[in-house]
Amino acid sequence: MNIRALPLYATIAIFLLAYLICYLQFPAMLSTRVIGNLLTDNAYLGIVAVGMTVVIISGGIDLSVGSVIAFSGVFIAVVLRETGLHPLAAFALLLAITTLFGAAMGGMIHLLAMPPFIVTLAGMFLARGAGYMLTIDSVPIDHAFYETMQRAYYLMPGKGRLTLLGLTMVASVILGMILLHRTKFGTNVYALGGGEATARLMGVAVGRTTVLIYAFSGFMAGLAGIVFSVYTSAGYPLATVGVELNAIAAVVIGGTLLTGGSGYMFGTLIGVLTMGLIQTYIVFDGTLSSWWTKIVIGALLLMFILLQKGLLRLRVSH
Amino acid sequence: MTGTKLLRRIAPQLLTLAAVILLVSIYYPAFYQIVFVNDRLVGIPIDVVKRGAPVALLAIGMTLVIATRGIDLSVGAVMAICGASAAWAIDQGYGIGAALGIAGAAGLVCGLWNGVLVAFFGIQPIVATLILMVAGRGVAQLITGGTILTFDSNEFAYLGSGTLIGVPVPTVIWVLTGIAFGLLVRRTALGLLVESIGVNLRASTLAGINSRVLLIAVYMGSGVCAALAGVIATADIRGADANNAGLWLELDAILAVVIGGNSLLGGRFSILASLLGAMIIQTINTGILLAGFPSEFNLVIKAVLVIVILVLQSPRIMPYLELLASRFKRSSATRLEAGE
Questions:
Q1: Measured between CA atoms, how close is B227 to chain A, in angstroms?
Q2: What is the distance, to the nearest Å, from the Cα of residue A291 to the centroid of all Cα atoms in its chain?
Q3: Is B327 part of any domain?
Q4: Per the count of CB atoms within 10 A, which of A55, A65, A178, A311 is most buried?
Q5: What's the pLDDT at B332?
Q6: Could you tell me if A269 lies within 8 Å of chain B, comparing CB atoms?
Q7: How many Cβ atoms are within 10 Å of A18's Cβ, its own excluded?
Q8: pTM for the full predicted model
């Protein structure tokens, strides 16, 4: 058996087990309605986690994504309010900005040879600050096209709604899987995560790959920002504080090694759904307080990190 | 460190601080005014050294952690836990001594947790402390029961808003803590050992340094600093707010250490420079408000500051700067020899 895939199997097993426990207690949990909502409510987190997975497998980290999502919402809201631009044009403009922003951070990480942690921390301040500069209020978005997007869904059997947002997330994950597991870029990302010096000796264009990785993360954060703005119909510069942590947690729970070089995109989807499931369970239960989400996620993080450490030892000793 | 050597080490920080103060005083000329009213010093500089207390305290512990090539993301959450425990203890009718003891113990336990994960399980520090960063706020909310736990104790509130011979108590606490940690690491070999772990953990361990114990001790030190910061934050508002106490302060603390010229790649460190870094951050925060700038500029200015410092610290740029400096020195030396 492929020992590298063990964390992925563990993630899937835990998710199925957790769902079974939820189902035994609340039979209503196993309905397409709950599953549809699980996808819709966690769409922005899932999309941003796709970018984060690529970054983390390359051995980096991107702390700026939460701020970029907030900036995206504000940017779209302000552009739609101030100009007569169609939302799709605003989306294209925004994606160009966030992709360039990510590319700039990747360029700095490579050129300055500084830890991604601190470079993206500066990016986090910058994106949040840029959002504040546009507006400090919550700007509502009132556009016919937004209503169309919100109403777009496919009615699954059992009256569950597979919304446009949920579909966007699933499509992002599939795009991420193809990019990571089926392209040369993906191979380069794994090589970079295994070790920069080795990757360079193997002929990986380290600089270009680094820039592309963070540009991809920036693009995904922009896309998540669009989804979040459709989800909330507003732009607010204080929104999605700390989402980068949730995304990192989802990636780790999904079985990706935080030291880089190992992990699967599909695991991230399961990680996001596991986190969503905990929240859904708390809602269903009604008596548990919301802070248990944080504690359970922390415990899951610990478990997966220790599991991966154990696997690493196993691999070394064999 | 001799006097001139120390001065040369902290010169960039002192210059930055002076520049920031100068910039603020252009917009707000009354900056330097300090008066003595009602047995306490009042003025903007006093406000800066008081408000900067939590970040300064966190920066002390963070400096040591970063010197070991680690990072402690959990300090903000630990602040919330310790503040909540102290408020809970006061609320339950324990005395102030017991409350402080419980808060300190909570900080030590949090540090021990981080330290064990890093030193024994060999988990990357950023990941190990992430766990407590995520779960810690949940734990703090568990202690406060999800509400802002208020209490009525003038003795405890004194720690946040009282004065000692005119000086705000939080200032006294961070200065004394800074001196205590400074003496501990510089008057013993501990500081040197911490630096050697940061430069090369394996070599240090092979050379006979008990790196596991030392790493755990460093994280526990960071926990104690976070506990003190949490107590001050809680005492200041007479209530424990599990959601907002110390929120994002870990980033400010890391920023203070970086502004202090300490390398994130571990090794040589200076607590004094980090404390100056914390004061620079607080002066910027206060200055932006005083100058009448909207506070939304705050983050952008901080970001620009980080980027400038990053460029200056970068291992790719540093050699060029040093080369430039040495060339300048050599050329001036040859000119001296030539009798010019």
A1: 20
A2: 21
A3: no
A4: A65
A5: 65
A6: no
A7: 17
A8: 0.85
Question: Per-residue pLDDT tens for B169-192?
Answer: 999 999 999 999 999 999 999 999
Residues of chain B numbered 268-307 and touching chain A (CB < 8 Å): 294, 296-304, 306-307
Chain A residues with CB-CB distance to B316 below 8 A: 111-113
Interface of B with A in 206-225 (CB under 8 A): none
Q: Which residue has the higher pLDDT, A169 or A29?
A: A169
What is the number of structural domains in chain B?
Answer: 1
| Residue B71 pLDDT > 50 | yes
**In chain A, which residue's Cα lies nearest the Cα of B71?**
A117
| CB proximity B150 to A under 8 Å | no
User: What domains sit in chain A, N to C, each tagged with a CATH number?
Assistant: 3-312 (1.10.3470)
Domain containing residue B120: CATH number? 1.10.3470
Q: Does B130 touch chain A (CB under 8 A)?
A: yes
Check A298 against B311: CB less than 8 A apart.
no
Torsion from C-alpha of B277, B278, B284, B289, nearest 10 degrees = 180
Range of the domain at B182: 15-295
User: pLDDT digit string (tens) for B229-268?
Assistant: 999 999 998 888 887 887 778 888 998 998 888 888 888 8
Q: Once rounded to an integer, what is the mean pLDDT over residues A147-162?
A: 84
User: Nearest Cα to B115, choosing from B210, B187, B39, B222?
Assistant: B222
Check: CB of residue A214 under 8 Å from CB of residue A13: no
Note the ipTM here: 0.78
- Identify whether B3 is part of a domain: no
Interface contact A310, partner B, CB < 8 A: no
